[in-house]
Task: structure prediction
Amino acid sequence: MKYSIAGACLLPLLGLAAALPAFAQDLVITNARVLDGTGRVIENGAVAVRGGRIVSVGETAADMRGAERIDARGRTVMPGFIDAHRHVIDGEPGRWLAEQAAASMRQFLEAGFTTVFSAIDPTEQILELRRRIVAGEVTGPRLLAAGFVPLAATPARTSNVDPARTDASRGPGRPTDPAPAIQESQTRAAVRALAEAGVDAIKTVLIVTPGGPEQNTLSAVVDEARRAGIPTVTHAVTVRDTVAAVEAGTTVLVHTPHIGQLDTETARMIAAAGMPMVSTLGVFVPFFNERNEPLFRDFGPFPWDTLSSAGQGPVNARLLWEAGITYAYGTDTSYSPEDSLAHELKPLRLVFSPQDIVSILTRNAAAAVGLSEQIGTLEPGKLADIVIIDGDPLADIDAVLDVAAVIKEGRLVVDNL
Result:
């Protein structure tokens, strides 16, 4: 039976979001090529918005006298983009919040992102940023924030080296001894404290050690988080750890397994659990600077010994897709949203069609952040999160990089028409 994280898991945020349409405009978008996110294409369509929500999507718009009209002039209209695994704060948290947060949030909107899931940032600052966006003090995407709970008493990381460079999940450095356990009462108390602080989800990192406590601890985290009405998202990058996360009952898998080869039976088992999975495939694909030097996510030299993940991840992703998993867009990056999108498209297009990627970026990502009933498709009653782009992403997926306008909850927040 599939477990849905829509609805109660994110009710605190939805309650705040429902107040925002006071800023909204009544809009009618005409002369548009509409991709509504369900797979339907309307070659010459219209979308009508009232009070921050979609009223109609079709060949003609609902009667909206007095509404502001936007002539798309043949451009593509589609649901707002969603990054379901992002690191938002870069640098000293307090200073970043004071000096860079507003500009950073603007970058997300200009790249077409109307919803962003922060999969671990400093709790105090990310919740304050979320508050400012909800209050209208900062113009930005809808922001969801996770709080972190450890699954074993492992030493704290003291190095600033990107952990993906020396991932403990990857052999031969994978632990061979059981990690020390954390008392269950302590784990449950940590989940309750984060829930009371107002996080939207609990983030965990699962690396199963031989005879270790990690899977049992994750089960306790999942149980306590459900009691608090919030989901659990779990980092698992090997096939073995992904299976353990499924067995523990986590809500969302926030990486594609890229260490180890999935077989068809295991892929079907993972998909049948009904847990959305977030892509983050671009981490192990090099990008190149102006000197043609291959770089890693941290802008340092690319570690070629991790390159196998750049191939294994997409292969496993397609096997899971064929098995029926809800596969969603996420980057696990902290740099420019537009650059992150361009980079994540590289491995996605290896195994997914443009039509697949449109779903991954919108409808499926909405499922991964628990908001399928509110966003991810253009349908009457849903929040009016809309992107207008130049070009046709079904012919060339890179068209999603050419954002002309963005509407968030009925408010025109980017206008380059």
